Amino acid sequence: xxxxxxxxxxxxxxxxxxxxxxxxxxxxxxxxxxxxxxxxxxxxxxxxxxxxxxxxxxxxxxxxxxxxxxxxxxxxxxxxxxxxxxxxxxxxxxxxxxxxxxxxxxxxxxxxxxxxxxxxxxxxxxxxxxxxxxxxxxxxxxxxxxxxxxxxxxxxxxxxxxxxxxxxxxxxxxxxxxxxxxxxxxxxxxxxxxxxxxxxxxxxxxxxxxxxxxxxxxxxxxxxxxxxxxxxxxxxxxxxxxxxxxxxxxxxxxxxxxxxxxxxxxxxxxxxxxxxxxxxx
Amino acid sequence: xxxxxxxxxxxxxxxxxxxxxxxxxxxxxxxxxxxxxxxxxxxxxxxxxxxxxxxxxxxxxxxxxxxxxxxxxxxxxxxxxxxxxxxxxxxxxxxxxxxxxxxxxxxxxxxxxxxxxxxxxxxxxxxxxxxxxxxxxxxxxxxxxxxxxxxxxxxxxxxxxxxxxxxxxxxxxxxxxxxxxxxxxxxxxxxxxxxxxxxxxxxxxxxxxxxxxxxxxxxxxxxxxxxxxxxxxxxxxxxxxxxxxxxxxxxxxxxxxxxxxxxxxxxxxxxxxxxxxxxxxxxxxxxxxxxxxxxxx
Lengths: 281, 297
Description:
The structure holds 2 protein chains of 2 kinds.
Chain A: H1 10-40, H2 60-67, H3 69-102, H4 108-120, H5 123-137, H6 143-167, H7 171-179, H8 184-213, H9 216-222, H10 229-236, H11 244-268, H12 271-278
Helix pairs in contact in A: 1-11, 2-3, 3-6, 3-8, 4-6, 5-9, 6-8, 6-9, 6-12, 7-8, 8-11, 10-11
Chain B: H1 2-7, H2 9-50, H3 65-72, H4 74-105, H5 112-118, H6 121-124, H7 127-138, H8 143-149, H9 165-188, H10 192-200, H11 205-233, H12 237-242, H13 250-259, H14 264-296
Helix pairs in contact in B: 2-14, 4-9, 4-11, 7-9, 9-11, 10-11, 11-14, 13-14
């Protein structure tokens, strides 16, 4: 055994489990519970120090989603932009990702670097460049403008996931299909598409949720006319005016899809797709 | 058959090569073309504008005046130093935590599979939400402050503080999981035989960690650190929400130049500084992961 003595027996391992779960509850579970509590605070009573638990709970803040126009509008705006971005990203990424995944390319290194760049370059720099460019093009503060800028940062993830997906298709299967006399169309229909479907689904999901969450570029290019949920959250958290209870509601709306994605990705999808998306080793 | 192909080798090969090249071009144009148009062009504009060219609403001519202005002004200098400071701080703290956590995650303890799902949650949480979640805990009105107030302890100001403790805390919360993902992948790839052999030769667990695990994880450590450093150096939303009024992060200064003063030229000069630094680090990161992928093959 290579472990130190205190990790070899059962008690040591239970201690380790205890430490990890303790950290997880302080760092993750308690913040999530407190976030939910903030969204349920009764606005007439409030939640002031030193109360650890709010004195009175209500659904008033959740009802605000319907009664406060800006929250409802931001909700609609976010869920209008996200599908558009997903469709645009998929259309652009499919051919390019296929080429990167399955073809021998000249200048592959340059292309890979180009695709990696928007993932890593600071959003604020891209936002400064695109902001002034879109003012000239008349795309600032418009929905098409926001769709285009979100695509810049989300397209690389999609391309990487599509490339990893196509790269993962075993050549043997395609060769076998071809040897058995399948036409290119039949090969695509019955071999390629079923094999790449999960990866493409993961990419689409990733892009959709990425679009719901994108902040910096939407903020600089879309303000003040295009207000998505993260832009509203920024305002509620102290950007211009601070409303903690509404911030909690918007937080929960943004958090649920991401955590769902997390679990779907953990359970059903191959880790490589997600790793490719994150651009990690 | 061979004779036939030998008769016209060159022509056919050249023609197919050209056709292949055309196919590549057609396939690559949508994705790469989009990035060239909407990433490279704006970035080039930012750099040119930083040197006084392509100015908006002013006569444009090449000048270094903007950089002189940045160097002369304490506000801009401080913002660059402050961004470097919290980026470095976040990277060092996250690396230390991630090293310990990923070494311990190699041990098979009860509930490990649950923990390895749970720790990845911050990875997908948007940074604004991360700021909110951490704020509810560490702010002066937060849960910890309320809990310790019962015992008469006054909780220190961690948010909007001069030393950027709040910024570093939120950024660490957000970046530790990425590091653990990378480091534990690297560590679990280290052959078990090596550490077992070291143990048999009389090394203590600490010596194994120090002299076997750590050196073999070095490529992962450098890649993870570079990745976190670049991401944090240009981060906007967390410093803008949790940061103090002074000094401000360079990204926050850029956004106020753009949104409040419409001073695109100065924002571009600051952006050029950020871009050059990030580009150098990005290239280093790319070289690193290329090496690792090559080593894996």
